[in-house]
Amino acid sequence: MCGIYGIINDKKNQAAQTVLEGLKKLEYRGYDSWGVAIIPENGQKLKIDKHIGKIGDATTNLSQGSIALGHTRWATHGGVTDINAHPHLDCTKKLAVIHNGIVENYQEIKEELLEKGHQFISETDTEVIAHLIEEKSKLKKINEAIFETFKLLRGSNAIAVLDLNSQTIIACRNGSPLVVGLGNNQYFLASDVPAFLKETNKVYFLNDGEGIVLKQSGVTLYDLETEKEKILTPQTLDWKLEDAEKGGYPHFLIKEIYEQLTTIPKTTSINEKEILELANKIKSEYKVVLTGCGTASYCALAAKYFFAEAGIDAQSIPAYEFMPFSKFIDEKTLVFAISQSGETADTLIAVKEAKKRGGQIVAVVNARGSTLERMADVVLPVSAGPEIAVVSTKAFTSQLSTLYLLTTAVRDRYKIGQEKINDLSKVLTKWLNVQLINQLITLAKTLMDEEHMYLIGKHLNYPATLEFALKIKETSYIHAEPFAAGELKHGVITLIQKGTPCFVLASNDEVKAEVLSSAAELKARGGLIIGISPFESNEFDILIKTPDLGDLTIFPNIIVGQLLGYYLGVGRGADPDKPRNLAKSVTVK
Length: 589
Ligand code: AGP
Known about the structure:
The protein is an alpha/beta fold and 589 residues long.
């Protein structure tokens, strides 16, 4: 997944620098390399500036101009090199192409173009697009050449082309997100709204199969199939710029962890009508299937336990393993697709398949205007606000509290559910204090040089260990392996030696004793037992005390994992907002 940003009519005539500032706001989408192309004033040739690595405080030496296009890359095809960085030019050096996605048939297109004498300098699939447009524009107007080229590309893609001759930016979307910003005689193109939110909140989210032409006189929308003009209906977003800023915090991750004190209770005041309607459907024998990827798949698994509490046998299937089970989807199946971005390829593929089989899609999504939101039959927006840090936190807890509220509605206890979630945030607000933070910083220092750690949890705390471990892995790059507590004696206890850090996630629930005996087994093998629990125990060498909130204790138990991951990551010199090799949402299979 990559970040795309373009501007026409830059008021400061510093379009290249403006694009660079916009790309900095999109860097969570990929940070292997970046690049900018500009039409210099009275320029005869496009000017390009591209580099490997994070943008950081980079500036560009590109000259003045009011039209520019830029890209921040998450490498899929071709190594992380300056040459492979986007934009890519055609042979005439009058077309600059940037791309988000994968061109699955690029090899065969390349072979044909090589036979026609085109010269390629990079290993990327993207460069093929520039040369194919060049080839087609020999016989067609530039829009048509670009639309026709785009329709030949297989896979989920979004492209943007800076054309010197027509002084325009032309873009197409099929799968990967694109949004247009309509400013005051300034026009923006981006992969996500925060990039230009400072300039305008008047936007148009492109749909699959749409193309857009940005020129100095304005913006025109096209249907790619017919290549005919379409009416562009913008919407005005109620997003505030500070939502996408750090707000005085050193990193977005720690800011978003603290924001959970307000985002979790917010879920009690939204979606009531949809939640009660869905509860009635579930009570009238609709099957429940929950799916998502990564952190969202752990939310699905935790929700499965909440549904079981409500007497509902819900299926939780990670989206990347969905297909073998799609045959069980039918008209009486509610498929809850959980996603922060609403753009994750595997989740969208699972949703497409479920729709094909008649399933009703319920999107439990954070980012507004996303593809998932537009594919869904029912939308439960969790409204946690823009989540910029790659490591998901507030979106996860808002998705989980939304699904928890649904299970309370199934038990005709929605009001009680709302009260419990509101009480949860009041208790979290008291608990998330300096003492806790100091204790976690001390623990992080203790564990800083560890390369392996293990986690156990039982019942609801099992999905909590999966999410806790993922936060540690994503932020600190430490190998953290979660197990169901009962799994230990079936093999994995071999991994425990003297001093091996072992986290025990527990609640005051019906399996408290069993979890403590598993802790004792780990201790007997020399494990350093770290309790994440509302109760003391002699089994614990270290205790991070969490509030006793019954079945909602997994919320603070997971937040400990978010915070510990943050302090371990910072301590080990990792970038908590942009972990290596990751991107905010994975728009390729
Ligand atoms: C979570 O911290 C990761 N960024 C990743 O596992 C993420 O949850 C997954 O890629 C799904 O993304 P989505 O919620 O945007 O669909």
